[in-house]
């Protein structure tokens, strides 16, 4: 795949981009949609920077045709979008709302007309508020309701969508939503973190079963994780144990039951003072352990950890927002250390080597299961120049280096089938509101005008040729 230092990808490599419903759609009160936890959270004073909300966001709900025209212009071969649960099933129970399903039918039909493969994510963090009021993800019923919603979506869109993802980054839903409280619903309850993680896992397993009951036999089902590349600050026993603990909390709490049908014993020991894990019932782990047609991997940066030293400031540079409450239940004393080198606007270190490392780990641990990079990208301070053009050379360099890292993993045997750039559009960046721009397309949030950045043109060239252009 490499000739004279040229980095080329297979002709069937799936080049795409990704978005999430609450971050781009808007139309928050239209078509029968009701509040999700992110509507409630963003409308709660002090929770989101500048009081920003997703009420309008990028107005994709009304501008979807313009957006898929833009995707076609850039040559995207795939588009990963998420379905807003409350647009389809407003209370999280009962029959689907046809107006909501029709929105996604129109979107998918438009993609297919332009030769763009639709990849549907069922859950990207926007739980119906009524289900949160009934207990949220720490409650077992939420997993059961999620399977019902999955069946409704599969029945409606299964004739059009062949690639399905159940959950996006369940770690964030559980740990940031119920531990540190920096994401919706903003709860800070250590045991609820573990209960939520388990019921997200269980919801995935039940949803895969529900989807396979209604989808065509050749449809593909998956989950998207944000596994951490955890590096220890030294080879000391204490630092290596700190890395093991964080690896268990972010990675193996999901891959254990997903891939091996069991939660790791060291995870249970590490969290024994938080919970006795009695919420795991007989048969749950087997239900979670459904065969996967592929695994989605989101990667942004590695983390560097150490054991806490007596009298240290206990740095918490874990990159997940500031809170008085740690998401790292049972391992709150582990230190996340500042890493040297360039950083994005999120303060995240730029290190593409972690992506190669991560892909090779999954190649070893899930042999025979294809991999897709379902998110990878960076926020930079992108501003139009006097002519209205948006030049983002830092993002071009970032994309070049990370796609090079993907290629390196493929050359070492990893079965990577595609790459989805995060994100198509600048959008609502959760608790950061509209202050962080991840898009390859600039959005003026006053006028909603879309302007492809230099990175979009660079990415379009890579898609067209299958070869990485030199960074500018």
Tell me what the structure shows.
- Helices cover 39% and strands 14% of the residues.
- It has helices at residues 21-24, 37-42, 60-74, 85-88, 98-113, 129-133, 140-157, 170-180, 190-214, 237-260, 265-270, 284-288, 353-365, 393-411, 454-465, and strands spanning 2-3, 6-7, 14-18, 78-82, 117-123, 163-168, 220-225, 230-232, 294-298, 303-306, 335-336, 371-376, 416-422, 441-443, 450-452.
- Helix 8 packs antiparallel against helix 9, helix 9 (190-214) runs parallel beside helix 10 and helix 14 runs parallel beside helix 15 (454-465).
- The model has no long low-confidence stretch (mean pLDDT 97).
- CATH superfamily descriptor of the domain at 14-342: Glycosidases
In the CATH hierarchy, the third-tier topology of the domain at 14-342 is known as TIM Barrel
CATH architecture of the domain at 14-342: Alpha-Beta Barrel
Strand order across the largest sheet: 3-4-5-6-7-9-12-13
Helix content: 25-40%
Q: Give the ordered list of helices and strands.
A: EEEHHHEHHEHHEHHEEHHHEEEHEHEEEH
Please describe the biggest sheet, giving its number of strands, its sense, and whether it closes into a barrel: 8 strands, parallel, barrel
Mean pLDDT: 97
**What is the name of the CATH class of the domain at 14-342?**
Alpha Beta
**Which residue ranges are poorly predicted, with pLDDT under 50 across at least 5 consecutive positions?**
none
Please count the helical segments: 15
- Rounded radius of gyration (Å): 21 Å
Number of strands: 15
Structural class, by secondary structure, is alpha/beta
From the spread of the alpha carbons, the general shape counts as globular
Cα(first) to Cα(last) distance is: 23 Å
Kindly estimate the percentage of residues that lie in beta strands according to DSSP: 5-15%
């Amino acid at each position: 795949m490499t000739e004279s230092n040229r980095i080329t990808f297979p002709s069937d490599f799936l080049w795409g981009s990704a978005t999430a419903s609450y971050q781009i759609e808007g139309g928050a009160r239209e078509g029968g949609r009701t509040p999700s936890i992110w509507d409630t959270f963003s409308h709660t004073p002090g929770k989101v920077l500048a009081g920003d909300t997703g009420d309008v966001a990028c107005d994709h709900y009304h501008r979807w045709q313009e957006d898929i025209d833009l995707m076609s212009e850039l040559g995207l071969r795939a588009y990963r979008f998420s379905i807003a649960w409350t647009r389809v099933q407003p209370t999280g129970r009962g029959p689907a709302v046809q107006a909501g399903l029709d929105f996604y039918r129109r979107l998918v039909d438009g993609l297919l007309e332009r030769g763009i493969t639709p990849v549907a994510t069922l859950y990207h963090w926007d739980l119906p508020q009524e289900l949160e009021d009934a207990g949220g993800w720490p409650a077992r019923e939420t997993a059961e309701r999620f399977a019902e919603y999955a069946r409704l979506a599969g029945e409606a869109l299964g004739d059009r969508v062949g690639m399905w993802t159940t959950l996006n980054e369940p770690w964030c839903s559980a740990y940031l939503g119920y531990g540190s409280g920096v994401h919706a619903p903003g709860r800070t309850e250590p045991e609820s973190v573990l209960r939520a993680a388990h019921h997200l896992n269980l919801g995935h397993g039940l949803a895969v079963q529900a989807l396979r009951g209604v989808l065509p036999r050749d449809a593909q089902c998956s989950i998207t994780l944000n596994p951490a590349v955890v590096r220890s600050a030294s080879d000391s026993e204490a630092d290596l144990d700190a890395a093991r603990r964080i690896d268990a909390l972010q990675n193996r709490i999901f891959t254990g039951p997903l891939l091996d049908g069991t939660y790791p014993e060291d995870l249970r020991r590490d969290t024994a003072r938080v919970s006795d894990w009695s919420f795991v019932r007989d048969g749950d782990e087997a239900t979670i352990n459904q065969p996967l047609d592929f695994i989605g991997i989101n990667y942004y940066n590695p983390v560097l950890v150490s054991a806490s030293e007596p009298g240290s400031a206990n740095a918490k540079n874990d990159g997940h927002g500031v809170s008085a409450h740690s998401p790292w239940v049972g391992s709150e004393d582990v230190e996340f250390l500042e890493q040297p080198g360039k950083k994005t606007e999120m303060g995240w270190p730029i290190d593409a080597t972690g992506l190669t490392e991560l892909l090779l780990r999954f190649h070893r641990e899930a042999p025979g299961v294809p991999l897709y990079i379902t998110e990878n990208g960076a926020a930079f301070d992108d501003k139009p120049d006097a002519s209205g053009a948006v030049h983002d050379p830092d993002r071009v360099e970032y994309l070049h280096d990370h796609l090079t890292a993907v290629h390196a993993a493929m050359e070492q045997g990893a079965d990577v089938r595609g790459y989805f750039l995060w994100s198509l559009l600048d959008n609502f960046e959760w608790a950061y509101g509209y202050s962080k721009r991840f898009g390859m397309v600039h959005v003026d949030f006053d006028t909603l005008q879309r302007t492809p950045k230099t990175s979009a043109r660079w990415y379009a060239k890579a898609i067209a040729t299958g070869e990485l252009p030199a960074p500018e």
